[in-house]
Each structure stands twice: as structure tokens, then as C-alpha cells.
Specification:
The chain is of the alpha/beta class. Helices cover 12% and strands 23% of the residues. It is built from seven helices and 40 strands. The strands form seven sheets. It has an 18-stranded parallel sheet, with no helix packed on it. The chain is globular, with a radius of gyration of 42 Å.
Length: 589
């Protein structure tokens, strides 16, 4: 649907908000008549064409929101706006090169969004004169250089600073904490280096802090004031070292420290972070055993300790974390068996909540900001997991939809507990690359929501349970490199799991999935006696009837010829005739 052209007849209109309506086409020229507009919002549609320059001739215009469309800005045009804007959104508007200079004249701006463009150059120094600025979005551009200290000194009202995914570098300003009103600080995806400024821990209103995917380093973290209202802290994918830090306020709900160089044992005082719901420590050098102190963080929903050097057995009491939905202990050195108690009380994985839809949000993961004329949500980084044989990100918007248990790449032994089948909410179960033995429990067929089941590279024996045909959501089943035997089940979703690699190196398996016929499917071999009696009886009888007379005649002929051609002298012959007349008769016969 396009914006109707006759909307220009509403000449006395002062506020027009058409955002998020899937509108198409361009901005009608007839809207030039709306010169009394104070607020004009077209954000989040499908509009195309150039942004009309006559919009900046509206002297009363204070709020202009055009971002999130397919509109483009003519970078060759130079304008002198007649308006004094308080809010400007030109996100995803095709801006290229330097930030347009005319924006520097809008010193009354409290909201500025230039994200998702192709802007180059350094952080604009003229922003230090924007004393009323509360929200600044410059993320997803190609801006470079360091951040000026003067900006933070002058930004006493700044609530949101989003500079993610640019090419900023250098150390973070030591006075970053001067921006005391900051609630959201997103500097992820840049090239910042050096330590975290201590002053950042004194921003008492800070709720979301994302410094991930930089080159920050050091082994000393800022000590946050307990009164700081920080809910989300992401320091992942940097070069931090030393022991796992615990100097965060007790109300933090998400703590992401993965992909760094942290070492040593998990600290016992992690338990003071009693409101943690999501703890990510994957891809570090953490060693030692899993401490019982983890059990005191009763709100944990996500615990990711993948790819460390943890040792010992899985604590039976880990099942006390009844809210766990995602548990990843893969790629460690855990030993022993999978404790039955471990799965009996993981109630968070037993049944999915009936209202778990794509709109379900984890608390502390999505933070909203709203003003009189604009509102937005901040969705934090995805949770990276091994999902169906590859690493994938689970969006924070629907992380509550996923239930995952990954114990792969350890040294776990003995049988697979049948009680795992009680975790009916699981969407992915990975027990591969262990030393598990015995049969595959038929109760695993109770995992009615499972999409991926990986039992490969173990010592499992016996058949694949035929009840697996009940797994209606199953798309990936890998049982390769075991000692399984018998027919691969047929029916239901099992008919779609046809990759031979998922069944490879099981010498006793058969089925159409691996193009190996089962013994009971082969036709019976014919009996030798029946073959002779039924197929060729007349041939045998005729052969016997002809063979006897032919054999007799041949024998007589051989005897006759032997006597007729026997060489002897005449005198001897006569002598033999006289003395043995009966032998001559035999020879002539």
C-alpha cells in the first residue's frame, strides 16, 4: 500500500506518524503542503526513492524519522535546513562518505540515528557541542579512529551510545564514566584495545554494557558499585586473562565472558551473582572441577562452559538448577557416568512452557527505550551453540524456545541413563565423542520435541530402538562409529534421516538408508536336490538310457582292435597256435 497522494490536503496537520505499516512507493510530492508539521514519522516501512529535500523547509519541523526504509540520500546535495530538529532518524538511508555537514547545525538534537549506512571518517568532534543529546546511534558504519574524551565530558544527558560494528580503535577514554546518565553502552565489533577504564563501573544507571569482539586485554576488571543497575554485561571475544572475574553487581542477569584467555578454577564467589540467568564462559582455559557453588545460582537458565579444561565428574547436585534450559559442558575432560540424579530434577528441560513462542523474551536480554515520539528495543548478541552438526546463533528474542543438553567430547562412560527420556522439552541432545556403552535406551523415544540427537563415536551396541519412529520433530540422528546391529528403523521421521554418514562404521547395521540389505530381506537360496529333481529330470533319464549301449559298444571295439593289431612273428604265432589254440580264437573274435 502506498501513501495516498491526497494526504497533502490535510494542510493543518501538525503530527503524522505512519511508521511500521509496510508502506511502499515514495514520499508523495503532495505532502509539501503539510508545512505545519511538527513531527513526521515514516520509519520502518518499505518506502523507496530519494529523501525529498523540501522536508527541511518545514520551519516548525522538530522530529523527522525516516530510518528503516529503502529511501536514499543524495550525497551530492548540500542543504541549509530551515528547521531546528530535536529528533532525526536516517538509519539505512544510503548515506555515504562523511557525515553530512548540515547535521552539525542541529545542535538541539536529543535523538540522532545514522546507523546502517556507509559513513566514513572519524568520530565527529562537533558532537561535543550537542549538550542535549540523549540517544546516539552510529552503529554499522565504517567510522574509524579513537573516541574523543571531550565527548564524554560534555554528554551529561546521554542515555544511549551505540557505536557497534565500526572500525574505531585505540584505548577507551579513561573518563568514559563522566557520562553518568548512560543506560546503554554498545561498543562491540570494533578494534578497541587496552584495559577497561575503571570509571565505567561508576555509571550507576548503566543497564546494558557490550564490549565484545574487540581487542581489549588485561587481568584486572573494574569493581562495579553494588548499586549499579547493570543487567547485561558482554566482554566476550577479547583477550582478557587471569581468573574469571566476579566484580560485577549482584543483580546482573547475563554475564558473557566467552572466547577470552581466562584460566584457573571457577571462582567460588560466583554464587554472589544470585540473579544470573545466563552465564557464558566457553572457549577459555578454565580448569578444575565443577564447583557446588554453582548450585546456589538458582535462576540460571543458560550455562555454557564449552571448550575448557574442566575435570572430574558431573556433580549429581547440578540437577538442583531447576531452571536450566541450555547446558553445554562439551569439549572438556569430564569423566565418570551421567548421573541419574542429574536428569531427574532438571524441571526446566522436562516440559516446555505452553506460551513459549517466538515472541518470548528472556528477562534482562532485551532492553527497551522509549520517548515521546520514538521507541526501540535492543536485542543483545546471539548465544552460539553447536546445533545440528554446526555452530549457530540462538536469537535473544526466542532463546526461551530452545532446550539443549550437550555433553559431547568428554570422557563419559557406562550406559546412557534411560531417564534422559524424561527431558521432553529438549530440542537437541548431544552425547557424541565419549565412551558410553550398552544399548540405546528405548525411552529416548519420549523426547517428543527433539530435533537433533547425536550419539556418534561411542561404544554403543544392540539395535537402534524402533520406537524412534515416534520422534516427529527429528531431523538429525547421528549414531555413526558405534557397534550397533540390526535394521535401521523405518517409518515416520526416520524415513527422512537417510544420510549414510550418520550410520557409518557400524558393521552390523542394515537398511535402505545405507544401501545394505538385511538378511531377512534376501530371497531364500534354492535346494540342490530339488533343483535336480524338478528342473532337469528328463535330461538325466535320457542320459542313462543312451549311455549304457554306447559304453558297451565302445568296450567291444577296444578289445577287438587291441587283438588285431598285436605285433608277433609268424613262427611264434604258429607255435602259440599249436600249444594254445583257444587264445587264437579269443584274439579273432
Amino acid at each position: 500500500m502506498e501513501i495516498p497522494s491526497d494526504i497533502g490536503n490535510l494542510s493543518n496537520l501538525s503530527s503524522l506518524s505512519l511508521g511500521k505499516n509496510k508502506l511502499t512507493g515514495g514520499v508523495p510530492a503532495s505532502m509539501q503542503k503539510l508545512n505545519k508539521l511538527n513531527s513526521f514519522g515514516l520509519e520502518g516501512n518499505l518506502l523507496t526513492g530519494e529523501i525529498p529535500l523540501w522536508l527541511f523547509d518545514f520551519k516548525d519541523l522538530r522530529y523527522l524519522y525516516l530510518g528503516g526504509n529503502n529511501l536514499t540520500w543524495n550525497n551530492n546535495m548540500k542543504i541549509v535546513p530551515k528547521c531546528r530538529l530535536f529528533g532525526l532518524s536516517l538509519g539505512s538511508s544510503g548515506l555515504q562518505g562523511d557525515i553530512p555537514k548540515w547535521i552539525s547545525t542541529q545542535t538541539n538534537l536529543s535523538f540522532l540515528d545514522l546507523s546502517m549506512n556507509q559513513l566514513h571518517g572519524p568520530f565527529p568532534q562537533w558532537l561535543t557541542k550537542f549538550h542535549f543529546l540523549r540517544v546516539l546511534f552510529l552503529s554499522h558504519n565504517k567510522l574509524s579512529g579513537s573516541l574523543p574524551t571531550a565527548f564524554f565530558r560534555s554528554s551529561q544527558l546521554l542515555n544511549i551510545l551505540a557505536l557497534s560494528h565500526n572500525n574505531f580503535s585505540g584505548e577507551l577514554p579513561k573518563n568514559i564514566g563522566d557520562a553518568m546518565s548512560l543506560r546503554i553502552l554498545m561498543l562491540d565489533g570494533n578494534n578497541f584495545s587496552g584495559p577497561i577504564p575503571q570509571s565505567i563501573s561508576q555509571i550507576s544507571y548503566l543497564r546494558l554494557l557490550d564490549l565484545s569482539r574487540n581487542r581489549l586485554s588485561g587481568n584486572i576488571f573494574p569493581v562495579f558499585d553494588p548499586q549499579v543497575n547493570l543487567l547485561y554485561a558482554d566482554f566476550s571475544s577479547n583477550q582478557f586473562s587471569g581468573e574469571v572475574p566476579t566484580t560485577f553487581p549482584p543483580n546482573v542477569e547475563t554475564l558473557a565472558l566467552g572466547s577470552n584467555k581466562f584460566s584457573g578454577a571457577l571462582p567460588l564467589n560466583l554464587k554472589k551473582l544470585r540473579n544470573l540467568e545466563r552465564l557464558e564462559l566457553q572457549d577459555n582455559n578454565i580448569s578444575g572441577e565443577l564447583p557446588n557453588s554453582l548450585l546456589e545460582i538458582s535462576h540460571l537458565r543458560v550455562l555454557n562452559l564449552r571448550n575448557n579444561s574442566l575435570q572430574g565428574s558431573i556433580p549429581k547436585t547440578l540437577s538442583n538448577l531447576q531452571n536450566l534450559r541450555i547446558l553445554d559442558l562439551s569439549s572438556n575432560n569430564l569423566t565418570g557416568e551421567i548421573p541419574i540424579e542429574f536428569v531427574n530434577h532438571l524441571t526446566g528441560m522436562i516440559e516446555a512452557p505452553p506460551n513459549a513462542t517466538s515472541q518470548t523474551l528472556s528477562s534482562g536480554v532485551v532492553i527497551a527505550f522509549s520517548s515521546k515520539f520514538f521507541s526501540t528495543e535492543f536485542v543483545v548478541n546471539e548465544l552460539i551453540v553447536n546445533w545440528k552438526k554446526s555452530k549457530q546463533g540462538l536469537s535473544s528474542h526466542n532463546i526461551d524456545m530452545y532446550f539443549l543438553l550437550d555433553l559431547s567430547n568428554n570422557q563419559l562412560s557406562n550406559e546412557i541413563p534411560a531417564s534422559l527420556g524424561a527431558l521432553k522439552a529438549l530440542k537437541m541432545l548431544n552425547l557424541s565423542y565419549n565412551k558410553l556403552s550398552g544399548k540405546i535406551p528405548a525411552r529416548l523415544s519420549d523426547l517428543q520435541n527433539v530435533e537433533g540427537l547425536d550419539l556418534s563415536h561411542n561404544k554403543l551396541s544392540g539395535p537402534i530402538p524402533t520406537a524412534f519412529t515416534k520422534l516427529q520433530q527429528l531431523t538429525t540422528l547421528d549414531v555413526s562409529n558405534n557397534k550397533l546391529t540390526g535394521r535401521i528403523p523405518v517409518g515416520g521421521q526416520m524415513n527422512t534421516v537417510v544420510d549414510p554418514n550418520f550410520f557409518a562404521n557400524n558393521n552390523g547395521l542394515c537398511g535402505f538408508q545405507i544401501h545394505v540389505s538385511c538378511p531377512e530381506d534376501l530371497p531364500p537360496a534354492p535346494k540342490l536336490q530339488d533343483h535336480y529333481n524338478k528342473d532337469e529330470p528328463w535330461i538325466l533319464q535320457e542320459a542313462v538310457g543312451i549311455g549304457y549301449p554306447i559304453g558297451f559298444l565302445l568296450t567291444i571295439g577296444i578289445i577287438f582292435l587291441a587283438g588285431y593289431f598285436n605285433p608277433s612273428s609268424p613262427s611264434n604265432s604258429r607255435r602259440r597256435h599249436r600249444h594254445h589254440p583257444h587264445r587264437l580264437i579269443r584274439q579273432r573274435i
